[in-house]
Amino acid sequence: MTKKILLLTGDCAEDYEVKVPQQALMMLGYDVEVSAPNKKAGDTLQLVVHDFIGLDTYVELTGHRIPVDIAAADAKADDYVGLVIPGGRAPEYIRMYPETVQLVKDFFAANKPVAAVCHGTQLLAAADVLKGKTTTSYPACAAECRIAGAEWKNEPVVVSGNLVTAQAWPNHPEWLRAFVQLLGAKITL
Description:
Helices cover 28% and strands 26% of the residues. The protein has helices spanning 15-27, 90-94, 98-109, 121-126, 142-147, 172-182, and strands at residues 4-8, 31-36, 44-51, 59-67, 70-71, 82-85, 114-117, 134-135, 151-152, 157-160, 163-166.
């Protein structure tokens, strides 16, 4: 039986933070289902690419379009072994949907592995699951993590119980390795 992972995101998620984990986990044999609120299976999400061009913050460029596999309202934590929450602007707005907040709470209640990167911690903060956790995120989200009760660390990747967080997509190798270990898989060379 193939183990399933839920990738919970939305329009304007960071392209690299959706596609790289999706494909890396699929390469390891996991069935990764993309889910979003306000969308149904077969709908399309527009991803974006963030880049730094000498401004104080990043700019947003058009990324790939990807299909939704399951509506967030239809996804159940019991059907998955883990949860991935990419960053970009998507977490800022998908945290407004009760079904996404409840999904996150359900994964934490079941103590299933959760991987969040960059702005993904905004959804975790909205779900009120960061109390007592140690986390990292894109530095602009540090205040939200602290307000939500987490100890925020300025480190590329942080593991805290069932949660692994990373600052941004350049941290994918360490972040994904830690997530796969939380899933119980062993990567050997």
